[in-house]
Amino acid sequence: MRTAVIIGTGMIGTSIGLALRKQGVDSYLMDTSPVALRIAEAVGAGTAEEPPETVDLAVVAVPPVHVAPVIASHQSRGTARFYVDVAGVKVSTRRELDALGCDLATVVGGHPLVGRPGSGPLAARGDLFDGRPWALVPAVGTDAAALNRALELVAACGAIPVVLDAEAHDRAIALGTLVPQIALTLVAARLTEADSGALRLLGSVWSEIPQLVGVDSATSWTQVLAANAAPVVGELEKLSRDLASLLETLRGVADGDGSLAEPDGRLLEFIQRGIDGSNRVPGRYGIPTETALADVDVSVDDRPAELARLFDDVAGAGVVMRGIDISQRPDSPDRTVTISVTPRDAENLLHELRRRKWPANS
Questions:
Q1: Where is the Prephenate/arogenate dehydrogenase domain?
Q2: Do both 4 and 146 map to the same domain?
Q3: pLDDT value at position 284?
Q4: Listed residues 248, 278, 308: the one ending a domain
């Protein structure tokens, strides 16, 4: 990837621009807000102008309700060869893209799972995505070259790609981010009725609880919640049944004499289920361990164009990358690029890369 356009210069879009510029990618910036655009350019995320010619990739970093119309508009103008969005909802976005007649072969849904206080370009950081999971959601007809370009973007930003389908993505986001945020919001709402003494007592404790969505991001958060309502309802119904069971247990405990005693076995079971569920989440995000993949290692020198040439050759081999890792070799300026593919594709990729004079090994 040599050129990119970032459409939307909030915290995410500007951070992507900073990361791409660090990798030598010529980045152009577009935004409906002249102020945000000037700030993003000033912090070094790219050039605040439309690209003079078709770019390799357009990153659409706009609120969820605008993703499909923006992609449709830029596809009609030929802005980029491929498109990636960063919205937190995928099923409804894909449905809207299809309804607008977009070329889904060139579009890959994306969603970097990051969060930090603040919003807008001044909150951006070039290392925002380092080591963080980044969901990639190709459609059934997505070109291999489009997915490979999206994987290249994720690698350039230092994130870890997780490839899955739209339905699985939305279910995961409902369970792991939206429902916890709803629960936290409901608890926080109870604080409006707490007395001032209780609030003083809870000040430092509450600050250690994961961040409640801020007013600056409330609109986009509610858009994701509304668009993802169906899987959220399903998870809340399960949570409601668990809560009803817990209430029944606690009512039984409350009917006692209030003395300290050994914990009720059902309460221990409740806590243990939470521990067991939390322990299932891998410490390192990436392709699920049950998915068998093969790695192909390629030595790439430090010229900026070489990494782009490698990804172009991988796409030319007709192979879909399922994961990628780039590491610096300690004894030279060269990098080792580890490409994860299916075992069936590994032999073909190795043959094609060697044919194109790449030093590749499996």
A1: 2-283
A2: yes
A3: 42
A4: 278
